Structures are given as structure tokens and as C-alpha cells.
Amino acid sequence: MTDFPSSSVLQALQQKIRDHTATVGVVGLGYVGLPFALEKAKVGFRVLGVEQNPARAGQVAQGHSYIADVSSEELSQVVAAGTLQATTSFDAIAEMDVIVICVPTPLTRNLTPNLTYVESVTREIAQRLRPGQLVTLESTTYPGTTDEVMRPMLEQAAGLKQGQDFFLAHSPERVDPGNQRYTTKNTNKVVGASDPQSLAIAALFYEQTIEHVVPVSSAKAAELVKVFENTFRAVNIALVNELAMLCDRMDLNVWEVLDAANTKPFGIMPFYPGPGVGGHCIPIDPHYLEWKAKELNFNTHFIALAGEINRKMPEFVREKVRRILNQLGIAPARSNVLVLGAAYKKDLGDWRESPAIAVMSYLLEDSVGLTYHDPYVPEIEVAGKTLLSVDLTESAVAAADLVVIVTDHSQVDYVRVVHHAKAVLDTRGITRHLATDSEKVTLL
Ligand code: SAJ
Q1: For each of the chain's 444 residues, which pLDDT tens digit applies?
Q2: Is 175 in the pocket of ligand 1 (CB under 6 A)?
Q3: Whose CA is nearest to atom 31 of ligand 1?
Q4: pTM for the full predicted model
Q5: CA-based Rg of the chain, rounded to a whole angstrom?
Q6: Which residue among 10, 281, 324, 404 is the active-site one?
Q7: CB neighbour class for 75 (10 Å; exposed up to 12, middle 13-18, buried from 19)
Q8: Residue 282 CB–ligand 1 contact under 6 Å
Q9: Which of 34, 142, 176 is the best mutation target for the ligand 1 pocket, counting ligand atoms within 8 Å of the beta carbon and taking the most?
Q10: What is the atom index within ligand 1 of the atom nearest the CA of 355?
Q11: Which one of 252, 322, 379, 426 is most buried, counting C-beta atoms within 10 A?
Q12: Structurally, what CATH architecture does the domain formed by 8-217 represent?
């Protein structure tokens, strides 16, 4: 357990955290905030979610979950018990002993950080900040945000001092949407703060519901840990995407090469090519680090290159579609193409930043007769058009000149799809180990 230097403010907060009588505010009830709020409520903290979207706040108040990894049954239990409430107002911020910020950190159109959510929330908190509160930022951002952006706003508006009157830390979220094995509770949690009191109290707070907390020496270090983690993924995914494009020129099967490379018992980690990189993390977070590095006159070449390669993949898929249609003797404008998958990755329904949307937009540009099926995504917007997911029937598959697998949802029967299809482009390699009519299938 963490011991503290004597300070009544600190000791009072320490006690409330230890006996779970602290009131916890969670700002932003999305795929990070809602699971977090639920875990804190389940151990008895009184949790108040501040959610800008009134519909979402209403759904939480009804105990209805809109996040796949949060069960409505568990949510309604804590709502009924009164340990979790939701509001759209910041008025109750002053009542909160701990305030956890889980708001989006998107990019602007020219790939620079957009901290408007973080700044506006910090402004609301600063107006109500009082001695004895702990504020932690979970949103992924560039190193320096907590100390250089949030701290001055909080200290100046409230006339309070970090580490003495209030406490401030950064603890990056590590949610892997859809991951059944690693959850908010058992995923190691990094915590950093720029004064020892804030670090100690923040570590104690996270230790109440997370099995292993990893303290680091500053908020900046914690911010960099997270953007490094996502940069690691972006760069490795880009490496295999580039390999896929090279194998295409060398007439080699990139899946065979990767499957064989991954038999090496040490020193390698599996990554696979795909139609592009989606979600609200991997295509975005590394550019926060790139932007900060540029401020220090430092070029992060890997990040720029990885982003460039990953953003190229939807067009590579378009090229493969054109090539296959050409081999079939069908002009794109006279073709029917069925795209399987709209979500950015398998077994979930999130299609934000999904490469499937970029692929479908290219196919519409080529005047392809486009339909799509995604069991998790009933409707999408592509290039200003609303498309509805079609039922995955044998006739729908047979009617297509080409079926393009873009998201490899587990519940789809790919053997049946290939059996009834005329031709298949598999951008996820999902059919490579299945007993299918392989001469119909082109792998990315
Ligand atoms: N992808 C590939 N090839 C791969 C792996 C992924 O093309 O080998 C694609 C996916 O299809 C998806 C995108 O990249 O479109 C991102 O996939 P992801 O597996 O990184 O998943 P995210 O973005 O939902 O969640 C990630 C977390 N996932 C993992 O670590 C496995 C983790 O990086 C972060 O906790 C999370 O982002 C976040 O919130 O930052």
C-alpha cells in the first residue's frame, strides 16, 4: 500500500479512496469511460458520469448499455443501487473527490491534435475545482498535455496548487474493444504524475479496481507510454501492409510468408495486412506524437511513413478489385460487388474511421454496383449515400460478380460464402486455412 506525507487534504482523500466513500466523476461515457465507471460503481464508489450526449446519459440512467463490452444487466444493477448515475451537467463536479476524464482526442483534417474536448472539460472542472480533489486524464494525447495544458488551466482558474491543494495525474486507457480476455479490471494500468503526492493518490485510486498499477515518474512519461504503444502497432501493421504490396509485385503469397515467419519461436510478433487501419486509436494517436516531436524540431519518420502506407491500403484493395473484374471480363461500371464487413475490425460494430468505408467509397467512384453485409452494422454513410446491410443469403452472394471480404467477423460462414460466390477477394486472409474452392479466392 502507498504511504503519504502528512497533509490533512491528502489524508482525507486517501481515506475516502481506501474506504470507497469517495465520489467519483467520470467525464465521457464512451468505450473507455463507461466500463471504467461500472468497475468503480461495482466496488461501492458513488459514481457520477458526465456525458455530453443526452441520449447516452439517458440510456445509462435507464441501465441500458450502448457499449458492446458493458452488459446492461450489470449496468442496471449499479444504477438501481444508486452507485452509478449519469448527467449532462458539470454542476456536481464540486461534489466529486476524483474526476476521471475519458473524452475523445481526435485529429484535425491535417492530422494535428484536436484537444477541444479535453480543454473544454478542463475549463468546466477548473471553474469548480476545490481543495482535496484528484483529476486524472485517460485520453490518449501528446506528452505534455496534462502538465502544460491542463495544469495551468486548473491552477489559474481555481487559484489552487497541484500537489498541495489538488492532485493531477495521467493514466492512459488501454481498452481493446471486443477483447474478452483483457478488461478494464485486469489490464495493467500505467499512472504518471509530476509530483509525488499526485502520483501516490492516483496510484491508490486505480489500485482499488485494477489488479496491477504501474507508476511512472511523470504525467509526460505516462502520455508517451500510450502513444508509443499505439505507434508500435501502427508501424508494425504498416510493415506487413508494405510487405503485402511488395508480395503482390513479386507474385508471392504474403500470408504464406507471414505464417512461416511467425513459426519463429522467438523475436517476432504476428501482425497481418488488411484493407487499412481503422478505429479511433491506431490511425490517430501516433500523429499526436509526430506533432509534438515536430515542435522540438524532430521528425518521427516511422510514424509519418506508417500512416502513409496504412492510408494507401484501401486504394490497393480498389486496384485488386479492378484487376479481378478485368480478368473476369467485367467492366467495373457493369459489375455487382458485395462487400463483407463495414466495421473497422472483427466482431464489433464500430465503423468509425473504418477502412471499409474508404474501400466502398472508391468502388462507388468506379461506378461499381455495390452492396454490403455486416451483421453488426445495419446502415452506413458512404460518399454521401446511405447504404443498408443486405442479408447474407446464398442468392445475394451468387448475384455478385465479386465478393470482397473486408472485415473478418467470426460469425460469417466463409466456406459457404466461397462455395456460392463466383469470385472472392479476401483482404483479411480469413479463408486461407479453410477448406474452400481456393481457385475462386484471391488473397490480398
Ligand atoms: N489491424 C491490421 N493488422 C493487424 C492488427 C490490426 O490491419 O495485425 C487493423 C485492425 O483491423 C483495425 C486497426 O488495425 O482496423 C486497429 O486495430 P487494433 O487491433 O489495434 O485495435 P483497436 O484500435 O480497436 O484497439 C487498440 C488496442 N488494441 C490492441 O492492442 C490489440 C490498443 O492498441 C489500445 O488499447 C486501443 O487501440 C486504444 O484505445 O488506444
Answers
A1: 444 445 788 999 999 999 999 999 999 999 999 999 999 999 999 999 999 999 999 999 999 999 988 999 999 999 999 999 999 999 999 899 999 999 999 999 988 999 999 999 999 999 999 999 999 999 999 999 999 999 999 999 989 999 999 999 999 999 898 899 999 889 999 999 999 999 999 999 999 999 999 999 999 999 999 999 999 999 999 999 999 999 999 999 999 999 999 999 999 999 999 999 999 899 999 999 999 999 999 999 999 999 999 999 999 999 999 999 999 999 999 999 999 999 999 999 999 889 999 999 999 999 999 999 999 999 999 999 999 999 999 999 999 999 999 999 999 999 999 999 999 999 999 999 998 888 999 999
A2: yes
A3: 176
A4: 0.94
A5: 24
A6: 281
A7: buried
A8: yes
A9: 176
A10: 15
A11: 426
A12: 3-Layer(aba) Sandwich (3.40)
Cβ–ligand 1 distance for 155 under 6 Å, the answer: no
Is residue 237 within 6 Å of ligand 1 at its C-beta? yes
CA 144 to chain CA centroid, Å, is 21
Check if 281 is active-site. yes
Task: Report the separation in Å between the CA atom of 281 and the middle of ligand 1, taken as the mean of its atom positions.
Answer: 7
Q: Do domains 8-217 and 233-443 have the same CATH topology?
A: yes
Write out pLDDT tens, residues 40-68.
999 999 999 999 999 999 999 999 999 98
How many C-beta atoms lie closer than 10 Å to residue 183's C-beta? 14
C-alpha 327/C-alpha 299 separation (Å) is 43
Positive or negative torsion for Cα 50, 52, 56, 62: positive
CATH architecture label of 233-443:
3-Layer(aba) Sandwich (3.40)
Is 344 near ligand 1, meaning CB less than 6 Å away?
A: yes
Rounded CA separation 162/158 (Å)? 11
Ligand 1 atom at minimum distance from 270 CA: 8
Classify the phi-psi angles of 169: left when phi > 0, otherwise alpha if psi is within -120 to 50, otherwise beta. Answer: beta
Nearest CA to ligand 1 atom 27: 176
Point out the ligand 1 atom lying closest to the alpha carbon of residue 274: 7
CA of 355 to the centre of ligand 1 (A): 13
Residue 75 CA to residue 42 CA, distance in Å, equals 9
Nearest CA to ligand 1 atom 5: 271
Provide the CB-side half-sphere exposure for 430 (13 A, CA): 25
